[in-house]
Here is the input.
Amino acid sequence: MLNYSTSEENYIKAIFHLQHSDGTVTTNELAAELKTKPASVTDMMKKLKTKKLVHYQAYHGFRLSNDGKKLALIIIRRHRLWEFFLAEKLKFSWEEVHAVAEDLEHVSSKKLIDKLDEYLGFPRFDPHGDPIPDMNGKIESSKQVCLQDLPLNQMATVCHVSDQSKEMLELLGHKKIAMGTRLEVKRRFTFDNSLEIKIRQPRKASADQSAINISEQLSKNIFAKYDE
Amino acid sequence: MLNYSTSEENYIKAIFHLQHSDGTVTTNELAAELKTKPASVTDMMKKLKTKKLVHYQAYHGFRLSNDGKKLALIIIRRHRLWEFFLAEKLKFSWEEVHAVAEDLEHVSSKKLIDKLDEYLGFPRFDPHGDPIPDMNGKIESSKQVCLQDLPLNQMATVCHVSDQSKEMLELLGHKKIAMGTRLEVKRRFTFDNSLEIKIRQPRKASADQSAINISEQLSKNIFAKYDE
DNA sequence: AAATATTTTTAGGCAAACCTAAAAAAATTC
DNA sequence: GAATTTTTTTAGGTTTGCCTAAAAATATTT
Here is the structure.
């Protein structure tokens, strides 16, 4: 991996965070997140495109390339390991931890981070409960949430069902939802808090993307972990 | 204390190190130390002068101001504490430690450094044996060396005499050297390894700067600690 | 679909930190 | 002390990352 400037790293990280709830990111969003101006974002996007860290076409938003995602995970790994260190070893409070880690995360020695990881005992979550990517960029999905709390368009994997009654399982079977099913919430109807979800079929080509409706009561019993 | 750029901090640190064996630093020396060009050094000196970190007059070299010295000690403190951390906690080898600390030293949170210091048990020397400045910028003088090993023009304070015989003390008395005397070696004669030293009189104005000659035998019995 | 509003990009500038080449000052040699 | 060499500074240029203001593209109203 090459070496990137603090500024480049901050852009990559910000795109990653915004992308989480969206997939693609806009110029204005990113400018707001980074407290800079849209024109500066455009400048940087051109640069990151030539470095192959983002896919970008003028006027059509951008998203991280595979290399961009890898880099983002490296930076997040650094950030969260330092946060863990600051809270656990130096006894910083949770609120103070973030600002200092913002600086430390740009020190780029891989060996430093891997040794820090080992020294800390390979922690899996930072003090805020966010998962820490491992040496290979593998990141555990966040803590599970019920479908009601899942952000729109956030791909997630079903991992828990709180009510395991026969009736419940019958309903789940009918809706073709099981442990490990990957889905995303496409809409939330405020009238009755029912959800419209899409299930991602593993084998079948991306056809058959029919939406399924889930009642509020059911949605509160199904838990999932964020993907990606 | 204000915030300084990584580049500014590197200049200040470099001046401090060169100054150690000289007092005043030249443009070319500094350019060599920082692996940059003399013209760039001149640029930066103008800037550091307006920030009152150095005393500088075109064509006449420069030296750190009091604020500059304070800043240098803060940076050295950060550097050496990180070195200690890397070696002691993360099990880096002595040689690896320096390069990583070069990056970490520019993270400027005072609280971080003071908490790190505490976490490490207030170490007094880094893995290379160099002293670590304390929270107030107080730095212990380095390990003592005999006059024979003192670099030229390095101000030092006499702190130990290995042979305390009557003859020895008589000679020291005659040369007006005692515990606490501040001196520097101005020349070393290779013919007989005798030294020409200057004693700094505390009270008297900087007049009376007569040089004294010290034989090799005597010089090996007088120990001093680096000043400043 | 035309007019308006919003978003995004382009154009041109600025400061930091570097560079090269030429000029000026200081040091050294003759 | 005049001539030469070395050191240092000035002048002008580059890249990075930011800015403002104007132009272009897209989205939203009417």
Summary: Helices of chain A lie at 6-20, 27-34, 38-50, 66-88, 94-104, 110-119, 166-175, 216-219. The interface with chain B takes residues 86, 89-92, 96, 99-100, 103-104, 107-109, 111-112, 115-116, 119 of chain A (CB under 8 Å). Residues 5, 7, 36-37, 39-40, 43-44, 47, 58-59 of chain A lie near DNA strand D (CB under 10 Å from a C1').
